[in-house]
TrEMBL record:
<dbReference type="InterPro" id="IPR003439">
    <property type="entry name" value="ABC_transporter-like_ATP-bd"/>
</dbReference>
<keyword id="KW-0067">ATP-binding</keyword>
<dbReference type="Pfam" id="PF00005">
    <property type="entry name" value="ABC_tran"/>
</dbReference>
<keyword id="KW-0813">Transport</keyword>
<dbReference type="InterPro" id="IPR027417">
    <property type="entry name" value="P-loop_NTPase"/>
</dbReference>
<feature type="domain" description="ABC transporter">
    <location>
        <begin position="6"/>
        <end position="234"/>
    </location>
</feature>
<protein>
    <submittedName>
        <fullName>ABC transporter ATP-binding protein</fullName>
    </submittedName>
</protein>
<keyword id="KW-0547">Nucleotide-binding</keyword>
<dbReference type="GO" id="GO:0005524">
    <property type="term" value="F:ATP binding"/>
</dbReference>
<dbReference type="InterPro" id="IPR050763">
    <property type="entry name" value="ABC_transporter_ATP-binding"/>
</dbReference>
<dbReference type="InterPro" id="IPR003593">
    <property type="entry name" value="AAA+_ATPase"/>
</dbReference>
<dbReference type="InterPro" id="IPR017871">
    <property type="entry name" value="ABC_transporter-like_CS"/>
</dbReference>
Length: 310
């Protein structure tokens, strides 16, 4: 079957005068690990809510495995598990009850071994009888993920699942989502962590001001920027930069010199030779390529990361 997992066609949504989504077209294929990136207020959560049928668009339509999210809400909704950004929970239930209730809501009475698998993968085994209010913030977040996946949907949508989560848990969540994706689940992830998108996603849509600014594979996005950097450490901190290299000079701090060049026109070896020709000795060097953060910044003019990834 060639049907897309999620087909988004011309979605528009305004809140009063604010146009949150200005006509979004996206097709997410089955089995993809898809990243939705954008700065705060770009429209990512509104788009996710539209896919989940929680927001009715002003125009356009979304289909989940061929089911229209408005006309055929129940079928569309059953095929997705949404992990919301906000941690909302019922304080009166235990972890196991919360997960079972959610499965029941989608008509799954017998979770079989899936409950244990979820609890194990999310490291919640010893918390299965704990009351939700007894859990730490990170644990509650893990329960939200288990809850969203309780009915074993073919598509998982994770809205910043690792925001505020410690490094170790973040790693284990990455592993788990990667495993689910490897088993055939389509995963859509919104994140502020470019490191996360770079590591996990096959294709990435960059959303800014309610519109798709770029949509491509991660590798193609990274290849768009042909700028490269060469950083050298000079033997002599007072040495003059050869004139042939001054057009490339991005920064200098004593013996540390940062050169920026276009890889299609120049090479690091050529630039190093220019030092040698001018008799300036180089004691160390390294090169680096632009990151998704650089590409993101050049497309949107904004930084994506609001927190440090430690
Ligand atoms: N229910 C609402 N009523 C009014 N304005 C809203 C509502 N929901 C979202 N908005 C506005 O729509 C725009 C897009 O918001 P949205 O939450 O979709 O962005 P986002 O990309 O998910 O941002 P973040 O990364 O901060 O979560 C924002 O300007 C937001 O203030």
């Amino acid at each position: 079957m060639s049907q897309a997992a999620i087909s988004i066609q011309g979605i528009r949504k305004s809140f009063g005068k604010l146009q949150a989504l200005k006509g979004i077209d996206l097709e997410i294929q089955r089995g993809e690990f898809f990243g939705l990136l954008g700065p705060n207020g770009a429209g990512k959560s509104t788009l996710i809510s539209t896919i989940a049928g929680l927001v009715v668009p002003d125009g356009g339509k979304v289909e989940v495995l061929g089911n229209d999210t408005v006309k055929n809400y129940r079928h569309a909704r059953r095929n997705i598990g949404v992990v919301p950004q906000e941690v909302v929970y019922d304080p009166f239930f235990t972890v196991e009850e919360v997960i079972r209730n959610q499965a029941g809501y989608f008509g799954v009475r017998d979770m079989g071994g899936w409950l244990d698998e979820l609890l194990d993968a999310l490291e919640l085994d010893d918390k299965r009888d704990a009351n939700m209010r007894q859990l730490s913030g990170g644990m509650k977040r893990r329960v939200l993920i288990a809850q969203a996946l309780a009915h074993r949907p073919p598509i998982a949508i994770l809205d910043e699942p690792t925001a505020g989560v410690d490094v170790e848990l973040r790693r284990s969540l990455w592993e788990f989502t990667r495993r689910l994706n490897g088993e055939g689940m389509t995963v859509v992830l919104t994140t502020h962590y470019l490191e996360e998108a770079e590591e996990l996603c096959d294709r990435i849509a960059i959303i800014h001001n309610g519109a798709v600014q770029a949509l491509d594979t991660k590798d193609a996005l990274l290849a768009r920027d042909t700028t490269r950097s060469l950083c050298v450490t000079l033997e002599d901190a007072a040495a003059r930069i050869p004139e042939t290299l001054t057009p490339f000079l991005a920064d200098r701090d004593g013996e540390e010199v940062h050169l920026r060049f276009n890889k299609e026109e120049h090479s690091p070896v050529e630039l190093l030779n220019r030092f040698q020709e001018a008799g300036v000795a180089v004691k160390d060097l390294h090169t680096f390529s632009p990151s998704l953060e650089d590409i993101f910044r050049s497309l949107t003019g904004e930084h994506l990361s609001t927190e440090e990834v430690s």
